[in-house]
Amino acid sequence: MKTVRFGIIGCGLMAREFAGAAARWTQFKDDIPRPVITAVCSRSEKSRAWFTERVPSVVFSTPDYRELLARDDVDAVYVAVPHDLHEEVYT
Fold it and tell me: pTM (2 decimals)?
């Protein structure tokens, strides 16, 4: 099965919801790509630690979203920051 390696920018509640959905993905019987979270970004070290301690596939953690975006081992990005911060990340 093909995998899509995700980076997550923002490690709050919505990012945790995404992690839960990714973990349950294997229940689908269709031959669809499996999400794997490989990198996380948050200005909060405590929020990043939640992922690095609980999601074994996370191999990179950073407070700078630009570092996450520059990685070759990230195929797609889930942006889970508050709406008023989206413009900063998208530009």
Answer: 0.90
